[in-house]
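A quick aside before the break. I want you to see a complete sequence-to-structure record at least once, exactly as it would be stored in a machine-readable document. Don't worry about memorizing anything.
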Amino acid sequence: MSKVAGKRVSGKNVSSDQAVSRGQANIPKGSGAPRVSPGRRVAFELLTLVVDRKGHSDELLHSARTEALSPEDRNLTTALVMGVLRWQIALDVRVRTLLERPEQRLAEPVAIALRLGAFQLLHMDRIPAHAALSESVEICKLANQPHAAGMVNAILRKMAAAQKPGTRIFESVPAFAERLGHPRWLVERWSAEYGRDVALAICEAGQQEPTAGEMFPEAGGVLPQTLPLMDDGSRLVAELAAVAMPSREEGVAAALWDCCAAPGGKSLMLALRSPGVGIVATDISSRRLAQMETRFEHYAYASTIECSVNDATQAVDSKDFRRFNLILCDVPCSGTGTLARNPEIRHQLGVEDIARQAERQRAILHGAFQRLAPGGRLVYSTCSLEPEENERVVETLAGARRLPIGGFLGKLASAGVLEEDVASHLLTTAVRDGALRTLPGVHRCDGFYAVVLERVDESPLVSIPNRPRMITEERG
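That is the input. The structure line, written in tokens, reads:
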């Protein structure tokens, strides 16, 4: 079992550990080569790639490395990679207390081996302690760090023998941030913005497996084949965008633009909810666009979607200009609302990255808004919890008025798209200044921001000054 934030989640298959405990290994005994089970070996490789920023955990866990594993070893690899990334900060603190020189910097392969062993000892009670310990030692040898094997063995033995810490009556923000594996600076921001209790709930949610969909009527049942597979927060944003389509005169064709479309789930939902409407789906990354087009091939209704590579920040050429009635501007962002799903973000994000993201988001929003027809509507959204990427970005836009999000939530509930109790809960807890603000641990989805803006002027087309350098491989 994997013990996560006070909740135990079953980790059913431990066949590799049982094999090791019976003396069976992948490499024959006596060969002198390190003996590491396939699941742990691949987990170590993937964690190394994540640390080196050579891949995202989600993509790596669905790559050729894991496809070659047995189902049991694949489950173990997934549990180890996601668990270590979620708990890394807390694991490192625990390890430091057991080092002879707590300030010493460990070689990265040694640190990863220790995290793997510590996570299994502290959070996976179906894994035999000796299997977790011995294979972490073998991983050091596998990673050409044999000199560290004795230290890893000693530290993990101390950890296995130590008593578990008791529950504190009250924790400061830094204390629960550390205990729950989140950066202190980020949690202190959340506490200042949303309050201590909400910050704690966000951290607790960040340590759990994302739940299956619970917000929509299909929850717990079989998802209709017509619906694209996506998390509830992303779907909620797409459903809000679809219902925000302004009315138009009979016979007048509507045009819709998803300007940061990859991976394409929201474009598919817009196509499903807006039959006959021409949809343009663009992304700055040709690789991600190609993956999106492949995905669209599985949905007949996606035939109304036109795909192309496009930089939404580029100045408009008035000689070749197209207006849209509805624009979905789901911009790349820091992703701080998705840490349960993308745990490595917490280790890679810095304060300076939020300002850099905000600069790019302003450029995308202003560029997209120029393509909006008078009376047209633009839905701006992120999966970030940071005001600089949300409210502060929207505040820089002139010529638009904010339409209350509550009315659109009501429409979704009336149409049976959103459960009545979910809509009611969102209306009372997730509407701030007319915009949607969901929070992990408070709502049944990731953290999203969404606002509906309507164009009220006929301002001239202008170029976007100081367009930031575009980085195409970030999530958002």
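Two observations worth writing down. Residues 71-96 form the longest helix (26 residues). The two ends are 31 Å apart (CA to CA). We'll return to this after the break.
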